[in-house]
Write a structure and sequence with these properties.
This protein is an alpha+beta fold. The protein is built from four helices and three strands; from the N terminus they run ααβαβαβ. The protein has a three-stranded mixed sheet. α1 packs across α4. The termini are far apart. It comes from Streptomyces bobili. This is Asp23/Gls24 family envelope stress response protein.
Length: 147
């Protein structure tokens, strides 16, 4: 063998390929992170019946514009490349009584951080909606309704 093994074709590094993250992947990451964030609130977790489809995430991803040489120089200076921008709407079901604002804020904060870290995307818009509140007093336990 000769020293030619280490030589590569004359294609510049930035033109060899691209990484794309789909809407579905971003939605799965966001749903998992939101579930983890809500699991830390013990007062709420016990009231939501098991098997509920929560959280539900709808997302829209926009790829980052093509970078110029100036963008590549900024990357090499230590900043991580941003692959695009995500807009998310997360629907959750929470236990009641609980701190609804704190739970929604935790979901927003953690989803934004993890989407940036795991998918390399910025979150431009994130809405958290509470679809349903579950109370221990309203669960069907075979008894008559509490009035």
């Amino acid at each position: 063998m000769s020293g030619e093994v280490d030589e590569r074709p004359g294609v510049p590094r930035g033109e060899r390929g691209a990484t794309a993250v789909t809407d579905r992947v971003v939605a799965k990451i966001a749903a998992r992170v939101a579930r983890e964030a809500l699991s830390r609130f013990a007062e709420s977790v016990g009231h939501v019946p098991p098997g509920r489809r929560t959280p539900h995430v709808s997302t829209s991803v926009r790829r980052a514009p093509e970078r110029t040489n100036a963008g590549r120089d900024a990357e090499s200076a230590g900043r991580r490349a941003v692959l695009g921008e995500a807009r998310l709407h997360i629907t959750v079901e929470l236990g009641y009584p609980s701190d609804i604002g704190a739970q929604c804020a935790a979901v927003r904060r953690e989803v934004t951080e993890r989407i940036r870290a795991w998918a390399g995307m910025e979150v431009s818009d994130l809405a958290v909606s509470v679809e349903r509140l579950h109370s221990a007093h309203t669960r069907h336990t075979g008894r008559e309704r509490v009035r």
